[in-house]
Design a protein that fits this description.
By secondary structure, the protein is an alpha/beta fold. The protein has a single domain, classed as Rossmann fold (3-Layer(aba) Sandwich). It contains eight helices and ten strands. Helix 7 links the parallel strand 9 and strand 10 (275-280). Helix 3 crosses helix 4 (168-179). The longest helix is centred in the first third of the chain and has 28 residues, at 2-29. The N and C termini lie far apart (45 Å). Pfam families: BD-FAE.
Length: 313
């Protein structure tokens, strides 16, 4: 009788433990974390309010971001010392394609056993920033510092924190990869350097002959100085310390020319940084996880790159 009672008691404890574990996992999974207690260089503007585009109850894109956040996505089977990727959606520094280049990508990473964080970063604006050139970079640096500081909480290896950026989000990701040590706010001593970088049809350069003009104007203004153009042309900022990088582009991309990825790859190669570049014949621009032609295979190639570099458990 006593054994039977112990059995039922132990079973009840096990069910309770499982329930608590699932509840904690769900709470963490649904977390949306504000990046800042006090946003550096902030200008208050009451008429500048976030604008979300919603379809079927799901946020597709957002603009006029004032409160940058991290949305947490953890694998169903969370393992100790897993890798993590912070995702920067694109949108020409005008809006964020938060679903196609954020949420869906995070879910794909989760299917590989990688923790993911969608970064809703501030878009450059003189209305809400004292210096709009560095506003997105401030958010990007702080996002990496936050995840690294809280790595144990999310079962993340602090030496396996990567970033992924699409289009203008790729510019921000490549800026972070090459400007992670820039002092753009009063930061903690935690490193903002990503351990690896995944750049998907990225804007890399601000040089007039190959840049995406909309991204250039949004970030640097209508008449940027040559110094500013050079500083944010990230192919010119690569060093031996730039993180290993995986790049994807399509030959027929007429929005963001593939020369952006090619020139960044050549700079990485020159500095002996591990790099892999995939230029697909067709795909155009903005194909997200891949919707047509040869671009639909980039996720397979990316998965193999992650496995080769030890980021898949």
């Amino acid at each position: 009788m006593k054994t039977l009672k112990n059995y039922h008691w132990n079973k009840a404890l096990l069910i309770l433990a499982l329930f608590i574990g699932i509840t904690i996992q769900a709470q963490t999974q649904n977390q949306i974390i504000p990046l800042w207690d006090k946003i550096p260089g902030e200008i208050k503007a009451s008429d500048y309010k976030e604008n979300e585009s919603i379809t079927d109850g799901k946020v597709q894109s957002t603009s006029l971001v004032t409160i940058p956040t991290l949305s947490v996505f953890l694998p169903a089977q969370s393992k100790p010392n897993q890798a993590a990727v912070l995702i920067f959606p694109g949108g020409g520094y005008q809006h964020l394609a938060i679903d196609k280049e954020g949420t869906k990508v995070a879910q794909w990473f989760n299917s590989l056993g990688i923790a993911a964080f969608v970064v809703k970063y501030r878009l450059p604006s003189d209305k809400i920033m004292k210096n709009k050139n560095i506003g997105p970079l401030q958010d990007a640096q702080e996002a990496v510092r936050y995840v690294r500081q809280n790595a144990a909480k999310f079962n993340i290896d602090p030496t396996k924190i990567g970033i992924m950026g699409f289009s203008a989000g790729g510019h921000l990701a490549s800026t972070l990869s090459t400007h992670y040590d820039d002092k753009v706010y009063e930061a903690s001593k935690i490193s903002a350097r990503p351990d690896f970088s995944l750049l998907i049809y990225p804007v890399i350069s601000m040089q007039n002959d190959i840049t995406h003009k909309g991204s250039q104007v949004s970030l640097l203004g209508n008449k940027p100085s040559s110094e500013l153009l050079d500083s944010f042309s990230n192919e010119k900022r690569v060093t031996a310390q730039t993180p290993p990088t995986f790049l994807v582009h399509a030959t027929d991309d007429t929005v963001v020319l593939p020369e952006n990825s090619i020139n960044f790859y050549l700079a990485l190669k020159k500095n002996a940084v591990p790099a892999e570049l995939h230029i697909y014949e067709k795909g155009g621009h903005g194909f997200g996880l891949g919707v047509k032609d040869t671009s639909k295979f980039w996720t397979r190639d990316c998965e193999e790159w992650l496995r080769t570099h030890g980021y898949l458990l």
